[in-house]
Design a protein that fits this description.
About 25% of the residues lie in helices and about 35% in strands. By secondary structure, the chain is of the alpha/beta class. Strands 1, 2, 8, 9, 10, 11, 17 and 18 form an eight-stranded mixed sheet that branches. Strands 6-5-13-14-15-12-16 form a seven-stranded mixed sheet. Helix 1 packs parallel to helix 7. The longest helix has 21 residues, at about 285-305. The chain starts with a strand and ends with a helix.
Amino acid sequence: MQDCDVLIVGGGPAGLSVASHLAADIKCIIVHQDAKIGQPVRTSGGSFLADMKALKIPAEYYQIIDKLDVFSDTAQASINIESDKMVVLDITKLYQYLASLSDKSSRQILLASKFMSAVKQSDGRYISEIRNREIGQKFIRSKYIIDASGWHCAVLNALGLVEKPVRFGVGTEYEFAQKYYPVNRATLFVGSPVSSGYGWVFPTNYNTIRLGAGVIKPDTESNPRDVMKTLIESGFLCKLGIEVPDDYTINSGILPSIAFDSKVVFGNVIRVGDSANCATPIAGEGIRIAIKQGRLLASALNSTISQGNPHKLQTYQTAYTKEY
């Protein structure tokens, strides 16, 4: 049995942002299913420059986009973005940067670990069962649990508080070096090359591009891998000057595609990020929201724990609901 004040389930931008802004005297454990922070990549990383600056994210972690091409079967548009510029985030380095902001003396990250279940005790604390790939079963006792597990809603689902979303976006990307694709241009497309789905090309700040396709489930039975195959065989990429090499990295991810839910506080169990359906339905991105709301939740937890006042968490839910 290991004790902490706050157990955070999920080592993505939401969970890491909560951990990095908790007071130094609050003991926190982060449970993360992957063996490394930021790997594998599960998102295309689209966001906005103004938000990154407001969140004080260093410029070395993103590529600025100021040109956007949009294609359908019958039309196309080229847009010079003068204001509200977009960015493509270096997901691995950004997540590792967010992890580095935590106070190591009061934070512990359990990698390659999966949240299994939680039981509420008579004293109000929770005992959570964790499975680690190397050491096996482990138990953590905490007063608070933060569900930052993404669309899985692992904690809320296990406790019978919330069900997993029934509608979600599934995306697959091929990432590879591309010498001639402009580093400041993004491309979005719909139509026959990505029938029943949608596609994108995003340049990174480390000389690769992310060529992706996504579908909405259960709206379609199509698989994004099959959509990618159709895209490559369609000849559409020749129009963009893109040639897919034999060697590429595959990034895959899932995000909720349902209405925002204003209920985020369930006593001492709180959800944040994609577990609260905070992916924008139009742009399909939510990293900036996850970082911002993770920090807001940490502030509310600091006040709650230091003052012993559980009503402080309601300020988090009120602010969350007001904005989204």
